Amino acid sequence: MIIEQIYTGCLAEAAYYIESSGEAAIIDPLREIGPYLKRAEKGNARISYIFETHFHADFVSGHIDLAEQSGATIVYGPTAETTFPAHIASDGEVFRIGELTITVLHTPGHTPESVTYLLKDEKGKPYCIFTGDTLFIGDVGRPDLAQQGKMTMEDMAGILYDSLHTKILGLPDEVIVYPAHGAGSACGKNISRETSDTLGRQKATNYALKAGSREQFIKEVTSGILPPPQYFAKNAAMNKNGYERFAKIIEKGTKALDPDDFEQLAVVTGALVLDTRTSHDFAAGFIPGAINIGLDGQFAPWVGALVSEMEQPLLLLTEPGREEEAVMRLSRVGYDHTIGYLKGGFAAWTLAGKQTDSIFSVSAEEFMRVPAGGAEVLDVRKPDEYEDGHLKEALLRPLDYINDWTNELTGTPEKIYYVHCAGGYRSMIAASILKARGVDKVINIEGGYTALKAVKI
């Protein structure tokens, strides 16, 4: 028996590879399917099934491409409806993978079709559960993403409580819990950094499982939920209705363009220039109007949260050699309209004598010498981070909602704005967006709140 968790940190997503006696199954695959095919080839195994725990909202699954290339059957839980060939399993249905069995446990609540897959070993003993977004380590799935008809968030939370108590919590304590996400995912509010645990430990430590009643569970699970990123519903629709093949997305997006062609294409198509370099490199010089979202952070989720139109044409500026990586990661969240990249990167742009812009940054020490009232300070962290500690004069302006609050600033071009987050990644994203939207006097505080605390704010 082989069970491998394939964890992708930038999405906080876990897919799973299962193998026994020459047969394999994949649970919740990502868009790029090469790693799964190679893993099965390495084990000399045939992929028989692709098990989906639900219609994912935070990423586009690779189920369709993988099924076409492997011949495997896509499996969804009861009530799921798709426009592509799939086996809609019944509650309690059993599938065999070599010497192993996988039983479908219908566990609605996060979404109506959500299922948990119970794997039993060669001796028929319950070994682990693949819980998708029904049960996380330290949390449960948010109940506000897939309300139907007159169903409320509270109604879905109640259904989730019933699912957990009738289908999962009665399993042996030693059963291993394998969820679809870890810390950083917007699919829960209290997800642990651990990516697996025993069910017994979760019963003892998970706040939601410790709720004393159905009513208490509903209250705790529904409180403090931030609005979902705007791309969630669009990704769920793509997973349900299909999408363009991954290979074509890569082919379109990795078209090399010289500076003149890049500049002309941006004008003709209205493309957004997405600069994926580090915040430090971006600040030193960038193409006017470009937005900085660095590849070395949670790149795809931030694109999904901030670029409101998924059909928006994108032109990329990356570090040389990372162009395909950027296109791939954009496709994971359904941004399939990359139309090319700047060949030679920013160096080629400057060598061609093209116009550039920059963002001024100051250290925490330098910021502390700025006269009181001399500028406005924008804290772009999340509300809970702000509540844990902030500059007295700082205004809370979460990056997640910059499209809602930018207009507050664009009418006052004479003001100077100092922007900070926790460490600098998010603040440079915010500064780049503000610059692109006409707020010219933007200064980034290097090192963010972490650096400010170090100089004894």
What does this structure look like?
This protein has 457 residues and is an alpha/beta fold. It has 3 domains: 233 residues, Ribonuclease Z/Hydroxyacylglutathione hydrolase-like (Metallo-beta-lactamase, Chain A), CATH 3.60.15.10; 108 residues, Rhodanese-like domain (Oxidized Rhodanese, domain 1, 3-Layer(aba) Sandwich); 95 residues, 3-Layer(aba) Sandwich (Oxidized Rhodanese, domain 1), CATH 3.40.250.10. It has 18 helices and 22 strands. A hairpin with a 4-residue loop joins strand 1 and strand 2. The chain starts with a strand and ends with a helix.
Helix-strand layout with pairing:
Layout: E1 2-8, E2 13-20, E3 23-27, H1 34-42, E4 46-51, H2 63-70, E5 73-76, E6 87-88, E7 94-97, E8 100-106, E9 115-120, E10 126-132, H3 153-168, E11 176-179, E12 197-198, H4 199-205, H5 214-222, H6 232-241, H7 246-253, E13 256-257, H8 259-269, E14 272-275, H9 279-284, E15 291-292, H10 299-306, E16 314-317, H11 323-331, E17 338-342, H12 345-351, E18 360-362, H13 364-368, E19 376-379, H14 383-388, E20 394-396, H15 402-405, H16 407-410, E21 417-420, H17 425-436, E22 442-445, H18 448-454
Parallel strand pairs: 3-4, 4-5, 5-6, 10-11, 13-17, 14-15, 14-16, 16-17, 18-22, 19-20, 19-21, 21-22
Antiparallel strand pairs: 1-2, 2-3, 7-8, 8-9, 9-10, 11-12
Helix pairs in contact: 3-5, 7-11
Short description:
By secondary structure, the chain is of the alpha/beta class.
State the total count of DSSP E strands.
22
How much β-strand is present in the residues?
A: 15-25%
Number of domains: 3
The radius of gyration is 24 Å
- State the shape: globular
The CATH class designation of the largest domain is Alpha Beta
CATH fold type of the largest domain: Metallo-beta-lactamase, Chain A
Helix content: 25-40%
